[in-house]
Amino acid sequence: MSHASMIIGIPGLEVMRVKSKRRIDVWARPFRRQASCQHCGGAKLRIKATHKRTVKHTRRGNQVMILHLKVPKYHCQSCGRYFRHAFAGLRPRYRSSDTYQMEVYEAHDGGVTQRKLSRTHQISGATVERWYRDHLGIKHSEMDRRRCPRVLGIDEHFFTRRKGYATTFVGLKNHKVFDVKLGRSESSLRPYLKGLRGRDNVQVMVMDLSETYRGIARQYFPNATIVADRFHVVRLINQHFLKVWQQHDPEGRKNRGLISLMRRHQWNLKDEQHANLMHYLADYPVLQQLYVAKQRLVRLMLLKTLTAKRARAKLPQLFELLDQLRDSPLRALAKTLTRWLEPIVAMWRFSKSNGITEGFHNKMEMISRRAYGFRNFENYRLRVLTHCGWDGIINRVRMNAHPPLIG
After folding, report:
1. Per the domain annotation, does 110 fall within a domain?
2. Which interval of the chain is the signal sequence (predicted)?
3. What are the backbone angles phi and psi of residue 328, rounded to the nearest 5°?
């Protein structure tokens, strides 16, 4: 390899001249003829003609390097077929090299906007998006070959006002997004769920207290144990309690200091804070009893990784609290918890929660904001899977983005 070829980064080139002004123009040709036919492997080749090819290659400093290549067209006397000279890193009929496209992809993936790349690399914003998607290269067939994770989290998040909500499927054991699909109803997710491979592989499904998702789990994931999400259960308890507080003391409900004390766990309060809160609740005996019951209930909800024997031992305490709540203003809460009793009890056996999914939702929101919003859901889905998806698939995608190069 010549020194010029080493600098350019494409082997087998002989540089004839270079001109540098606003850009770097490099005129080059193959260092030697191609040795064999790319179709039959024959060695009897003759040069039929030569054509010129202009390719954007890379950037040196702030200047774009343009390659002006003299490309021989060969005729194989063994098989009679024609073909052009092959260059490493230059695909046929492309006006830019793989190196140039990779520069644009990595810059855009790192946060550089399409408008900025259009100016620096002298391409259109549509070309930036197309190259980015080509390097992602996530095909539906590749997505279908994945098998469902054993511990699956499911939750919804907002996409756009026009298209509504999307459903996120997360592998909670590997902390990776499995997939994102538009819609949150059984009818909208039905085609995807019916074609999903490895549904029988799912053993645990973590979700909030959504009847829709529970119905989906029972219908499409028959071997999965439904586990309630601990965060949503505790939040539901607090919401019901604060609503009852609003009914008993509307003015006190507006006090931010009291709101903070009411929401926090009792064991996290300082002695002075707990004394002040009890002094306030002394004027509302019913509210005070509900507060004590709420704290006992939350403490039960926070239990995790219990053995089956210890979980059974805790059941009488839970039943006692639910009976107390049925005869109180929190009867609606008791009804909801009773309806979800089995997933809540299953929650004691596991440590995983949908907090991982909520964290991915925050990251998805940042991805959407960086793009000033997405109109096309598939573009959004590809970006989410690239930044939050499984490493094995992304690695295969990056490998498939560079197929064997022939000229």
Report:
1. no
2. none
3. -130, 175
